[in-house]
Write a structure and sequence with these properties.
284 residues, globular, mainly alpha
Length: 284
Amino acid sequence: MPAGPRSPSSTDIPSSALIPFIFVTFLITWGLTGIYVLAPDMAAGAFGEISGSHPFFFLATWAPAVAGFLIIALHAGQSGIRAFLARLLIWRGSWSWAAFMLILIPLVFMAGSLIKGGPLLARLPPEGARVVVAVMIMMLFLGPVEEFGWRGVMQPLLQRQVAPFWAGVVIGATWGLWHLPAFFLAGVVFTDWNFLPFFVGNVTLAVLITPIFNHTRGSLFWPVLFHWQLINPFWPDAQPWDTWILVGVAVIVVWWNRKTMFSRDGAVTAVIPETRATEPRATG
């Protein structure tokens, strides 16, 4: 039988921290982007034109991680942060999940692009592949950093109360809504996208990463890798078809993992793992 949900230890983050985590996350992101949405001329004059490389854009993107680290520091101090970061070292997982991330996800983008009449891979700029590789490395320090908040803090706290599937749905909806101001922000990629498919995509992706997160016992390495794949600049823009394909993939993944997705048995609930929980999980 699967193990029951592990109760958080006395040194872990209390479940009540979920509310301030969400509040701080939205305060930072919506506050920074809101300035450019509501008063673009004033904001541009004071802080410069907003773009994907603007410091404010980075800070707004990092908001879930900033909120997460603040919560951990408040409740557990430096030792808690060190133990939390040890979750990056939980890297072992099944080969099937590795293939899912490294092979299936790119194929989804390629298929979606072909459906809309686009290229198999993103077209290289005149400077060549070196520039794209540089962007890909930069992307590792942008979106994937969010995972310290979403999967690092929010997922374990939610899974203390609800089954993993519903935790994924809540995180995905929160994640999608959190992005909303960016769709009114000139100078970033979101202005060319439709919010509804994007929102559905966020919920779908949060559900998809959930069984991987629990299989690897709360690893942060795997969600970071997953997020990095989603924004890899080598993959073509396949919106909105990639979303609809991923919805179909998610239905299959949820059905295949239905015993663990709709039960709290075996769900990861610790933000700060015990020492033995930081050891890599062997695969059979």
